[in-house]
Specification:
The protein is an alpha+beta fold. The chain folds into two domains: about 150 residues, Aminotransferase class 4, branched-chain amino acid transferase, N-terminal domain (D-amino Acid Aminotransferase, Chain A, domain 1, 2-Layer Sandwich); about 160 residues, D-amino Acid Aminotransferase, Chain A, domain 2 (Alpha-Beta Barrel), CATH 3.20.10.10. It is built from seven helices and 17 strands. Strands 1, 2, 3, 4, 5, 6, 7, 8 and 17 form a nine-stranded antiparallel sheet that branches. Strands 9, 10, 11, 12, 13, 14, 15 and 16 form an eight-stranded mixed sheet that branches. About 40% of the residues are buried. Bound molecules: pyridoxal-5'-phosphate. Pyridoxal-5'-phosphate binds next to helix 6.
């Protein structure tokens, strides 16, 4: 293992030894290879620089309790990136090779996988972009697919605390737009909203559906989960929400491990005051509990309070992280071991 102070790592870029690079040229992908050079060289007129033709994924590798190195459901990331590519008129990198590239990149940087129990993980970032010169608005001809990884620290230092979020007046996605894919452009347009939220003292934005502004969608980078007073897990359904792998996994955990009822349906903003618990879910934090939602000065406080996770959220969190860390048996195919 590298000599890194794992406990004090933040969520920032640390350059590791190797990265995977494949190129799409003349209508075909090359084999791709692991390389040393972390720099990307491209035309000043590259498609990605002019018209933001790029998409990405994010997943983690970590050590389990019994000392294995694993990654979590990479096949779903591969499938989601394929969907992103199709929507952005980019060539799909074959899903099986995609998973192989991720595994090879982890293997090549194995000494950067943090120790079990440190809370730190190896974050893996696959991404693709149009690389040849594009000046008329059209898809690029040539693309590059890369995978790098970087060790990141525990998301919550000094324990998990519920956050306060606000209802945003900005939209993150258009109806029939690109909200359901992991496109860089969705993040570019959310930056102003998140900086503004932080300036006003809020941790995140709750985005409502852009068409009617009556239904809960998601935050800039995490899906919502709600728990009813009788212990049902409710997750918002909409075509403009990014299908979180963490959220989909939590729904399985709730039903199969905890015997909870699960509903994936439209959630009206008006009904959230009746929920017992609220959280945000995504790869980075797994679940961040939400204690309070502020809607233009009107506060909605969840009964679980501002001190700790609600009891159902905690059960979901402990069970999913238990599966990820090898303390509980994982459903078939969820953990891919790096050997
Ligand atoms: C990546 C992402 C998520 C979380 O997805 P996971 O697969 O759980 O990491 C949620 N919302 C948005 C907008 C995202 O980009």
């Amino acid at each position: 293992m590298k000599d890194i102070d794992w406990g004090s790592l933040g969520f920032g870029y640390v350059q590791t030894d190797k990265r995977f690079v494949a190129n799409f040229k003349d209508g075909a992908w090359d084999e791709g290879a692991l390389v040393d050079d972390p720099m990307v060289t491209m035309s000043e007129c590259a498609g990605v620089l002019q018209y933001a033709q790029t998409c990405f994924e994010g997943l983690k590798a970590y050590r389990t309790e019994d000392g294995r190195i694993v990654t979590f459901r990479p096949d779903l990331n591969a499938a989601r990136m394929a969907d992103s590519c199709r929507r952005l008129e980019m060539p799909v990198f074959p899903e099986d090779k995609w998973v192989e590239a991720v595994v090879e990149t982890i293997k090549a940087n194995i000494d950067f996988v943090p120790p079990y129990g440190s809370g730190a993980t190896l974050y893996i970032r696959p991404y693709m972009f149009g690389i040849n010169p594009v000046i008329g608005v059209k898809p690029a001809n040539d693309y590059q697919f890369r995978v790098f990884c970087t060790p990141v620290g525990p998301y919550f230092k000094g324990g998990v605390k519920p956050i306060t979020i606000r209802v945003s007046d900005f939209d993150r996605a258009a109806p029939n737009g690109t909200g359901h894919i992991k496109a860089g452009l969705n993040y570019a347009m959310s930056l102003h909203a998140i900086v503004d939220a932080h300036n006003q003292g809020f941790a995140e934005n709750m985005y409502l559906d852009p068409k009617t502004r009556t239904k809960v969608e998601e935050t800039g980078g995490a899906n919502f989960i709600f728990i009813t007073k009788d212990g049902t897990l409710v997750t918002p359904k909409s075509d403009s929400i990014l299908p979180s792998i963490t959220r989909r996994s939590l729904c399985v955990v709730a039903e199969k491990y905890l015997g909870m009822k699960v509903e994936h349906r439209e959630v009206f903003f008006d009904e959230i005051k009746d929920f017992a618990e609220c959280g945000l879910c995504g790869t980075a934090a797994v679940i961040s509990p939400v204690g309070k939602v502020v809607d233009h000065g009107n506060e909605i406080c969840f009964p679980a309070g501002m001190e700790e996770m609600g009891p159902w959220t905690k059960k979901l969190y402990d069970t999913l992280t238990g599966i990820q860390m090898g303390r509980l048996e994982a459903p078939e195919g969820w953990l891919v071991e790096i050997k």
